[in-house]
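ZP: hey, is the guanosine-5'-triphosphate complex queued? I don't see it on the tracker
AM: it wasn't, my bad. submitting now with these inputs:
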Amino acid sequence: MMEHRAGYVNIIGKPNVGKSTLLNALLGENLVIVNAKAQTTRHRILGILNGDEHQLILSDTPGILEPAYKLQESMMQAVDEALKDADVLLVMVEIGDRPATSEGLVARARRYKGPMVVLVNKVDQGDGRQLEEAVEQWHATFPGAEVLPISALHGLHIGLLRTKLIRMLPEHPPYFPKDDLSDRDVRFFISEIIREKILRLYKQEIPYSCQVVVNSYEESPELVKVQADVVVMREGQKGILIGKGGGALRQLGVEARKAIERFISNKVFLDLKVRVDENWRGDDRKLRQYGY
Ligand SMILES: Nc1nc2c(ncn2[C@@H]2O[C@H](COP(=O)(O)OP(=O)(O)OP(=O)(O)O)[C@@H](O)[C@H]2O)c(=O)[nH]1
Ligand SMILES: [Mg+2]
C-alpha cells in the first residue's frame, strides 16, 4: 500500500506580495479574498488540497508589518503561529524585493528550521536581469532553500510547485476529513467577501476601520438569506459607509450579494447594516469577540 502524505505548507511574506492569490492558484478555487490594497488578509486561513494519497494543507497569513494597533498585533500572532506548525515554509517575495528591505520577513524566516522554498512572485512585472539579481540575493540569504520564480496571477510554475510540495510532505494520515476545503465555515467566507468589496469601494482608512459580522445565514433550496453588520470605529465613518441617500451602502450590498451568489452557487438575499463599535480594532476584548 502507498503511504499517505499530509502536512502544513505555510505561506508568509510582506503585505500585497500575492500570498492569497497563490493559495487560490494552488487550490484551483477562489477561496480567500485578494485585493490590490495591502493588508487584505487579517487571519490565518487554511485551504486544503485533497488527493487519494495526500492532503496538502495550505495556510494563508496576513502580510508581515510593524504593528501600529491591536488588530495588527493579532495579525502578527497569526504569522507566528504559522511558523510553528509548518512542515514546509513558503517565503514569498515580489520580484523587486531584496533581503535588505525585508527585515521583518527575513528575521522570522530565519527562526524556522524546516524545509523552505523562497518564491519570487510577479515575475511578469520584471525583466530577466532583475529576476537573476533577486534569485541570487535570496539564495545567498537562505542557502538551504530552493528559490523558485513564479507568477501566482498568471499561473507560471504553479503546477510544478504543487507537485514539488506534495513530494515534500511527510508521511502522515489526513488531519482533516477528505472532503473539507478549509477550516473556516461559510459565514466566515461571506464576511470576507463583503470586506473585499469594502476594500474595493472605499478609500483611505475606511477599509482598515471596518469589520464584518454575519449574524444570520438561513438556507433554503432556492434562496439563502444573510444578515450582516459592517462595524466601523466612529460615527463619521458610518456616514461615509452609507453615503448620500444610502447610495454607497446600496452599491456595496449589490456587489457583495453577486459575489456571495457566485461563491455559494445560490440566490442570495443580503441585508446589510452599519453600526459603530467605538475603536473596536484597538481593544483586546472586542477583537476576541470578533474572532481575532
Ligand atoms: N502582476 C502580478 N500581480 C499579482 C501576481 N500575484 C498577485 N498579484 C496581485 O497582487 C495584489 C495582491 O495580491 P494578494 O494575493 O491579495 O496579496 P497578499 O500577499 O495576500 O496581500 P495581504 O493579504 O494584503 O498581505 C493583487 O492585486 C493581485 O492580483 C502576479 O503574479 N503578477
Ligand atoms: Mg492576503
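AM: back. The domain at 186-289 is CATH 3.30.300.20 (GMP Synthetase; Chain A, domain 3).
ZP: great, adding it to the tracker
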